[in-house]
Amino acid sequence: MWTGNEVTSKLGIKLPIIQAGMAGGTTTPQLVAAVSQAGGLGTLGAGYMSGEQIRTAIRAIRELTDKPFGVNLFIPEEETGKTVPGEAVRQIMNETRRRLGIPEDPELGKVAEPFEEQMAAVLEERVPVFSFTFGLLDKRWMAACKQRGIVVIGTATTVREGVALEASGVDMVVAQGSEAGGHRGSFLPDSPDNLVGLMALVPQMADRLSIPVIAAGGIMDGRGIAAAFMLGAQAAQLGTAFLLTEESGAHRLHKQAVLSASDEATVLTTAFSGKAARGVTNEFMQLLAPYTEEIPAYPVQNALTRDIRQAASKQERSEFLSMWAGQAGALGRAMSAEELVRKLVEETEELLGKR
After folding, report:
1. How does DSSP assign 138-172, residue by residue?
2. pLDDT of res. 193
3. What pLDDT does 189 receive?
4. Which of 100, 174, 198, 293 could share a disulfide with 217, CB 3.0–4.6 Å?
5. What burial class does residue 160 get, using C-beta atoms within 10 Å of its C-beta: 0-12 exposed, 13-18 middle, 19+ buried?
6. Residues 51, 117: contact at Cβ < 8 Å?
7. Cα angle 173-58-60, degrees, rounded to a multiple of 5
8. d(CA 87, CA 266)
9. 174 near 200, Cβ under 8 Å?
């Protein structure tokens, strides 16, 4: 059966369907719990959360379900390249602030939450599953997770990255195709430029690795899940599909933009965070597109645009929102997470002939 394999066994779940850990408020405790309660694996996107916020969210999830769930974090990166915006980028961002009625050239403040505090929360709360992106997990954190029986999942955008993750000791690898919404999980040199599609990535990674491969990128329905299994994956991870559910914390305008987006409507941009991410194109992305070389590296740019994104959200100005989405958003369905999981299972089983 497609529902019974190494992934479901190790994760302690019924269905090999994983809700991606989308940071920034999309993965509410309600969404995470609903997916886990329905038999999949819900994931808290905690990349921008403090240690205390992570603890609070984990406890909220546990009040809603006793099923396994995951927490996803970003591996901290050394600051390289520009740490201040070029003049053209600075002017565009200040003009955007003027249009939003917020102060220009704000203090940078805290660039990112301390990873030590985030990991402390993950370990102390003994979450069932820990996933990460943007790099390799330090050996001491890997050992600490293993000592507590926490299943560890890394993210790769190329076979080289998958091999590196397996060597580091992860239990399974997410193969993130170039179709995927949100930030690219690339971490080895040149990887951000190697936009390998899921159809090409999954079978090559499955052949090369001895640990399970989870397919991610452009999967929105049973057709995508069935295809992922045929390519050699043992689970499918969906982000954009769950972003559109009732329990998702994504902005109303974000959901509308994704549902009405065509296959050509998303682009990779560094405008909002300094790191390549796929989202529905808008005015802010277009304004900064000619000045990529002047955009500070992640996480500095992410911190510099925080005030813009927050104001745009409050004022419902989608032209300045980061609306992350994969290339198949138009296949999305607005329904509850439980309903979506049920539909995904029905569609997949019909295609795989397991009914």
Report:
1. -HHHHHHHHHTT-EEEEEESSHHHHHHHHHHT-SE
2. 75
3. 82
4. 198
5. middle
6. yes
7. 140
8. 27
9. no
Q: Would you list the DSSP string of 180-213?
A: --EE----STTGGG----HHHHHHHHHHH-SS-E
Q: What stretches of the chain adopt beta strand conformation (E)?
A: 17-19, 42-45, 69-74, 129-133, 151-156, 172-176, 182-183, 213-216, 235-238, 266-269, 277-280
Phi, psi of 91 (to 5 degrees): -65, -40
Strand order in the sheet with 42-45: 17-19, 235-238, 213-216, 172-176, 151-156, 129-133, 69-74, 42-45
User: Length of the chain in residues, anyone?
Assistant: 355
Q: What does the CA dihedral 236, 242, 243, 244 come to, rounded to 10 degrees? A: 130
Spatial distance between the Cα atoms of 39 and 13, rounded to a whole number of angstroms? 6
Which strands, in side-by-side order, build the sheet including 277-280?
182-183, 277-280, 266-269
> Residue-wise over 19-40: b if at least 16 C-beta within 10 A, else e?
bbbbbbebbbbbbbbbbbbbbb
Q: What kind and span of H or E run contains 88?
A: helix 87-100
Would you say the C-alpha torsion 245, 247, 248, 254 has a positive or negative sign?
Answer: positive
What is the pLDDT, as a whole number, of residue 109? 82
Distance CA 75, CA 41 (A): 21
Look at the block and give the residue holding tokens 């090999």. Answer: 16
Sign of CA dihedral 73, 78, 80, 84: positive
Instruction: Specify the 3-state DSSP secondary structure of 269.
Output: strand
Question: What is the reported pLDDT for 108?
Answer: 86
> Closest by alpha carbon to 159, among 193, 202, 197, 119?
202
Structure tokens at 37: 């309660």
Supply 322's token pair.
């980061």
Yes or no: say if 244 and 204 are a contact pair by the CB < 8 Å rule.
Answer: no
Report residues of the chain scoring pLDDT below 70. 1, 79-82, 191-192, 354-355
